[in-house]
Design goal:
about 0% helix; 2 helices; single chain; about 425 residues
């Protein structure tokens, strides 16, 4: 039995550190054959009678390519998102997709993160690079398509750089997010371990926290933060934390930053050898009414291909599900997108690898821990490698994007990705 085809041939985009226009790969330990032999005990099932449709296939130029972020949806049913590549200048796009499937490029400069929209229809997001200092920016795009840089990161003097995640917005118009690099420049060979920041409605930036990567602290956040009613921010770091785990840079953390800028590490992941709790949480968190946090790890878990976890309070972690890592396992592997939680407590998400055809899955995890694969991507016209989070409308329909697949004439025959709709 051979190891998972996708896992061994492709490293998720979230494991790359973009810096000054270059991709620096983080080192991660490969999975062992021993872990793949455990696939037979994974409980999963495939749902029947779903309706899957491709709403749009990207062509690369001028419409965009390679969406790695999720979508947002307005009251009229229009979808908005970003692509990391393609467009007129090859650096991605911000796009709108209406209910008829017509795509409009709102701006030619892409993002790895999802967007947020205010009551006037203005969109807000981040760019990884670009800006005055080429260290990334926070931008807004109004309904006319006019783009304005709200803040340009400097990467110096304690400021962050290279924001890879989307933003969250409060009722006063303040924006909150993370940068992957910058902040404390004594960390990570002088490039910094990242920050949590706030940008107010006037464009004034405040660094709320600088990660250190030492003493159990996390490093290099690449996911958006979650904000509660008291103003506390919750998030993940894919590295840092417990540096005695399999990965020398640490297996990642779940953290909280309060309104005063005080950070608390809620959990340090330990990897997949021994504890099996997970490694490299690369996505954002979702929170229930009791304050419990739910998320995913890209690696680790019981079989090495990632996990779904729950955090209660500070320090209590429960592994709700482990993804399998063998070619014979249908339940998917390496989830990189944030979870979606419905009123019944079901969790929905995507895996960017695994599944029947190795091109990823859409899955549902019920409160009992039973996983159902809602869709297996083929890598063809339907898309492949979904990396972003899902959204749900009032009827329970799911919407998302894929990094590849779709129009196979694009992207050297591998496709430039799709926007899809799935009725479970």
């Amino acid at each position: 039995m051979k190891a998972d085809k996708v896992r061994t041939e492709r490293i998720p985009m979230h494991n790359r550190i973009p810096f000054l226009g270059k991709d620096l790969w983080t080192s991660r330990t490969g999975l062992t054959l021993a872990t793949t032999l455990l696939f037979a005990v994974v409980a999963t099932r495939t749902a029947q009678a779903q309706t899957y449709s491709v709403l749009y296939s990207f062509k690369g130029k001028p419409d965009g390519a390679g969406s790695v972020a999720g979508l947002i949806r307005d009251g009229l049913g229009n979808l908005y998102g970003t692509t990391a590549g393609g467009g007129n200048v090859g650096l991605g796009t911000v796009f709108k997709l209406d209910k008829t499937g017509k795509e409009t490029v709102l701006y030619n400069w892409g993002s790895y993160g999802s967007l947020v929209q205010d009551s006037t229809g203005t969109l807000y997001g981040t760019t990884v690079n670009g800006g005055v200092h080429t260290q990334g920016s926070v931008f807004k795009i109004d309904k006319t398509g006019k783009e304005t840089d709200i803040y340009d990161f400097t990467g110096t003097g304690g400021d962050g750089s290279n924001p890879k995640a989307g933003l969250v917005r409060d009722l006063n118009g303040n924006l909150y997010g993370t940068t992957q690099l910058g902040g404390n420049l004594t960390c990570l060979s002088g490039t910094g371990c990242g920050t949590v920041f706030e940008v107010d409605a006037t464009g004034k930036e405040t660094i709320l926290y600088k990660f250190t990567g030492t003493g159990g602290d996390g490093a290099n956040p690449i996911a958006p933060v979650l904000r509660d009613a008291k103003g506390n921010l919750y998030g993940t770091t894919p590295s840092g934390g417990n540096v005695s785990c399999e990965f020398l840079s640490g297996c990642g953390t779940v953290f909280r930053v309060d309104k005063t800028g005080h950070e608390t590490v809620l959990y340090n992941f330990r990897g997949y050898l021994g504890s099996g709790d997970g490694a490299e949480p690369a996505a954002g968190l979702v929170r229930d009414t009791a304050g419990h946090l739910y998320g995913t790890t890209v690696y680790g878990g019981g079989f090495g291909a990632g996990s779904v976890f729950e955090i209660v309070g500070a320090g209590k972690e429960t592994r709700l599900y482990s993804f399998c890592s063998s070619t014979g396992c249908p339940n998917g592997g390496t989830p990189t997108g944030s979870l979606l939680r419905d009123a019944a407590g079901n969790l929905y998400g995507t895996t960017e690898s695994g599944g029947t055809f190795y091109y990823g899955t859409v899955f549902k995890l019920d409160p009992s821990g039973q996983e159902t694969v809602l869709y297996n991507f083929t890598g063809g016209a339907d898309g492949g490698y979904p990396e972003g989070n899902l959204i749900m409308d009032k009827l329970g329909n799911l919407y998302g994007t894929t990094y590849l697949g779709g129009d196979l004439a694009c992207g050297s025959g591998s496709g430039c990705g799709v926007v899809f709709k799935l009725t479970p």
